[in-house]
Amino acid sequence: MAASRGVGKHGFVREHGLLTEVQQEAGQRSAALLEEQGIRTVRMIWVDQHGAPRAKFMSAPDYLASLENGIDFSAALFNMDSANNMFTAVFTPGGGLDIDELTGFPDMVLVPDPSTFRVLPWADRTAWVLTDAYFANGRPVPLDGRRLLRTQVEAAEALGYDYVAGLEVEFYLLRRDTDRIELSEGGWPPPPPRVSLLEHGYQYLSEVRLAGINDVVEKFRDAYIDLGLPLRSIEDEWGPGQLEVTFDPMTGIDAADAMVLFRSTAKQIAQANGLHATFMARPGLPNMFSSGWHLHESLRDRATGENAFTSDDAEHSLSLVGRQFVAGLLEHALPSMVFSAPTINAYKRYKPYSFAPDRAVWADENRGSMIRVQGEPFERGAHIENRVGEPAANPYFYLASNIAAGLDGIRRDLTPPPMSGADPYATEAPKLPTSLWEAVDRLAEDTFFPEVFGANFVRFITAMKRNEVGRFLSEVTDWEMREYFEFF
After folding, report:
1. pTM here?
2. Which residues sit opposite 161 in a β-bridge?
3. Does domain 2-141 have CATH number 3.40.30.10?
């Protein structure tokens, strides 16, 4: 069956040993689900460097064939920025990215991870599965986000720890005023959709406000539960139509996979209901408040199953391992910003007294700090909350950078600086970058992330982001017109 379908490369998965025994068993279960539920389409998803899901909608028989052969998928996406502009000299040796296998704009081979297989409750007889990227010679694509994160998860395991993460994500839900797309709006990037408010804001955690959009809240709730995501809460946030969704802790790569599915689900359900969900950090609309992605994280001792961040003395709210992890995060905070806040817009969020951090500090239960410690001595649920991330961040890069930095703190037995006092914004500490171009410079000057992620990967990210910055700085903004056009 697989060979006759003409999908991917015959026997590719077995030849290169790309599915574990657990994944092979999951593949068998997915095949049974196809039959039981009459699935006709499987969306095979690859998450690009921007954290966006790219897909081919495959027939069910061809999904089954891909478990043996993989599927061909254009590697051209690596050469594209967030607006699909090419940022490299493509037809050069190495495809402009100094990777031999990318010469000539080739295909890569995507291999499904059947453990991520799910049936989509809102789409007719349709399933969804994440994939990992390989070159035709069987080598993992070194720029692939899932590979990057998996490597760091395995590094934590090698030290005796499971990485544990919970998601807390803010986003806006707005009403689309029209679905009509004018001919003049067909360029790239297109103009933003025309929207209006779905609900009032600035009544934080209001039951009445959230109940006012309960129809769509219930659609979100049902979708996430039916997908098997560990939904904890849906909450009314600060701005008009701003929601916060939280998920219970997950281990390893699961939290990043869940973030991809969570965002994609929100946008698809919103669109199907005449709405627009945006994970842009600070929309340029009246009365909007910034959105963040707060990453809750800890380590679990693989030998005992206990929380490795739980303090066993009354002097500290975190264990020694937890404090070392924090020290690593703070030491590498500046160059890691490109991974946690990868868009130009994200840096409009980092202002003093804004509930977003502006410097690399930590504190007990303080929402003005970059790292907020949640827990008391001896508390089994003790963990940290990294408040620096934006909702649009690539989850694989964001989590991988956190793990890498934290493990560096453990390996080197680092000690964090003293906690900030009541006012983190007045603490003497390194200031976080105030723009994407400053963050890119910090990463380009860094020696740690090229060592753990690979120098080529860091060059790839900095080149892509410098292209994005260059496009932004070449535009004449509304601010410039207001400031100079009449006056001068």
Report:
1. 0.96
2. 301
3. no
